[in-house]
Amino acid sequence: MNSTSRSALRIVRWTAWTLVAVLAVVLAIAWYGRGAQQTVAEAKPYATPFQLTDQNGRMVTEQDLLGKPSAWFFGFTHCPDVCPTALAEMAQVLNELGPDSDKLNVVFVSVDPARDTPAILKDYVAYFDERILALTGTDQQLRDLTKARYVFYKKAGYGESYEMEHTAGVQLATADGRFFGTLDSHEPADVRLQKVRRLIDG
User: In terms of C-beta density within 10 A (0-12 exposed, 13-18 middle, 19 or more buried), how is residue 78 classed?
Assistant: First the structure.
């Protein structure tokens, strides 16, 4: 075999190995991306276990809320504007859903357990709509719950006049606990209603 033939053979071999290496990288990236997508798709933050107390003193777990889509809001009863606005908007959504309101859980979780007792929560949510489920718990129970759902809250201020900084917006979850989207007070009312209808129509 002359030098020209050997050079040509080396080029062919180098090209073949290069193609194999590139193909291996492409397949690895595709497989990794597929795995990442499955991990995200299979995540069910609203199905993670918890135990909280509702406004009637009854223990509630994640199993009580699975099976129907849910709208979750985290706040506190001393909130001056964001919380009452969100609950009023959810009460409006429930009314506009009519008979379909039975297909949706609306949940208000207090991040201020020191002040928001079940009795206080009962009076508070009843002002907006008695169909709203209010939940509270110990500091640890709330930390575990909010961590699983990527919800932020923090005490701000001192004495009895303190407030709670917290994630705003209503979070929507599917019947099996998957995150579906959010509702924002800056959205038109009909947009919020359309989102909820898409959620419950599944």
Answer: middle
Q: What angle do CA 179, 96, 182 make, to 5 degrees?
A: 20
Strand, helix or coil for residue 58: coil
Phi-psi region of 144 (alpha: psi -120 to 50; beta: other; left: phi over 0): alpha
> Cβ-count burial of 16 within 10 angstroms (0-12 exposed, 13-18 middle, 19+ buried)?
exposed
* pLDDT tens sequence across 81-121: 999 999 999 999 999 999 999 999 999 999 999 999 999 99
pLDDT at 4: 43
Q: CA-to-CA distance for 201 and 68, rounded, in angstroms?
A: 11
What does the pLDDT read at residue 44? 93
Q: Are 83 and 73 in contact (CB under 8 A)?
A: yes
Burial code (b: 16+ CB inside 10 Å, e: under 16) for 141-172 equals bbebbbebbebebeeeeeeeeeebebbbbbbb
* Per-residue pLDDT at 42: 56
pLDDT score recorded for residue 185 = 86
Mode of pairing for the β-strands spanning 133-136 and 163-166: unpaired
| Distance, CA of 112 to CA of 137 (rounded, Å) | 9
Q: Which tokens sit at 84?
A: 């009452």
Alpha-carbon distance values, 3 to 13, 15, 186 (Å): 15, 18, 75
Q: Which residue numbers in the chain have pLDDT < 50?
A: 2-41
